[in-house]
Amino acid sequence: MTHLSDNKMSIRQNNVNVHDLTSGAKAAIRDGISRAFRENLKPPPKLDLVEWADKYRKLPDNSAEGGQWHTSRVPSARKPMLSISDPKVQEITVMSCIQLMKTELMLNTALYFIHQEPSPLMYVAPKKEIAEAWSKERFMKSVKATPVVAKAFSGNRRGEGNTILQKQYAGGQISIVSARNPDDLAMRAVRIMMFDECDKYPVNTGAGSEGSGGEGDPIAIAWGRATTYGKRAKKITACSPTVQGKSRIEAEYLKGSQEVYKQRCKHCGELHELSWSDVDIPVDKETGELLHSEACIVCPSEECGARWSEGDRRWSIDNGEWYAKKPLVTWHHSYKVTSLASPFTPVVVLAKEFMDAGSSPQLLKAFYNTRMAETWKEVGEQPDWLEMYNRRENYEVGTLPEGVLMVTCGIDVQGDGVFYEYVGYGRNRESWSIDRGFLAGDIRTDTFKAEICNTLFDREFHYPNMPLKAERVCVDSGAYTQHVYNLVRDYNNTRVVAVKGMPSETQTSIISTPTPVDVFSDGTRHSRGLKLWKVGSSTLKQMHYGFFNHVPPTDEQLSKGAKYIAGYCHFPEYEEEFFKQITAEQYVEIEDKKGFVSYQWEKTRKDNHYLDCRSYARAGASMLQVDRMTEESWDVRERAYYHPEERVTESAVDYSGDITDNNESESRVNNRTSKSNWLRNRKKH
Q1: Which of 60, 91, 174, 515 has the most C-beta neighbours closer than 10 Å?
Q2: What domain range is 231 assigned to?
Q3: Rounded to whole angstroms, how far apart are CA atoms 288 and 375?
């Protein structure tokens, strides 16, 4: 730094005598002193966040790439960073994919204001453990790696207002708090508010053990403490979205300018807002399998349609632009960016993740939330029964359409009879409803039990090459438990099992290991007696609703070889009531007494029997390993069922899901068919 004496020397060099009291000499002295103050005591030049980070920010050694920060590495981060340091913008929302900018955006914000505009800051995490981890593993490591910021903390000592969650520096402090603690959120006035992973915050922070009290939304509580600073206050919110209509970050994004990152096609020069539908994953013509290693983006322009290389995609990122859907909202800039605009995630990696998700609602939800920055329309949401009714297909009820290679049945037991549905399954989890109906009677009587056995358990369906009964019949035991147990026990065939639907809080898998229910006189369980299969009702309903919402290919697409999407459900020309029942529940948000949100199924119509039947039938298919069936296993079934030159008997079908040796299987089936006296004589009734 230049000393004042240097300026005094310059005064002397200009032949100014400091002892001269004339007006000219005094003016020269005043000018010299003013120049000294201007040159030596003025603050550092004001930088925006991009300029500051590119000049001062250093990445710590626990980063994927250490060393100097370069905004040019993540082109889509530039404009959100500029918004944060823009005095005219008060709120900034970033709805982003993972592994792109959210974490570093928060760190850059904190470090920038500590160095450039020392003020009180607050970082809000979903819970205390995350807050502590962010402080130790992210914030302090970034502070130590960035010298100009480290100087601000050089005099700090633990115990003098400095802890893991509280850091003092000249001009302010940073408070790192949990969204679950209302006292921390409202403890002091704060100018810069940073809300990270906001979709994981509680609905009502501070609710008591019995659900009493609570102070409401944590963002509203904390942001209310910034009113002291007026328009100088800043609110930065970042998160990946979750469920449509329930996501906080989506709500914040919709309040703002709604900017999307458009990528420019290198071939036609047009800018496009890309979505996952713009990614093409080729199909192997011989095996029908998706080839993720050859996935690429296809230019959405009909005139262009160029297939982008990975180099083209990187070029499109570097030459992309932000486009505001609501440009008149200038005080709140909100941004959305996907992994398609990430220089760190190739398209083939995304395609592999998408393929691995398959038809799993949970995995697909994670993919669209974290990779495509899209809210997920909850698969449990009610499909349109009329839309399903209108896309019925013209195949005969009670017959096996082409493609069916496995048949199961689900039975819902009521006081006045039983509802049932037979469902056929084929490759790629595709399904066909074969028949449905209601059988009137009282499950508590032997006469009706015999009728169930004759009509439902023993019903045969005919493949071109052989007759076959349903390979699994799942009977609901929730209402008339012991009577169903007796029915299944007396029929004494492993094709017929007792099931019970379980809520999501106790079971998330489709089926669990069957539990023995028979006991010996000493109270020990009979391991070879009747077993109860517990079924994840909520998981199955979510799965079905996702499948019901699938859109079928057009006739033209089918003629060109297109296939139905995995899990697609076919229905014959059933009556309206069937479709009303199979869509008779809705997955709704429930807020408990503590203010935490959960989801549960509620009826929207009185009867939902066919939805339960479908769930039980699908549970039966899972018992037969439909989700793990290989193409080779499907091939074996197809040859056995459809090709006369390879004729086999019914006993060749092992009801665990594979074709087996005739003699071995026949012996096993015969050993299962012993029945009680009333069942042997059921035809007499």
Answers
A1: 174
A2: 49-264+323-345
A3: 30
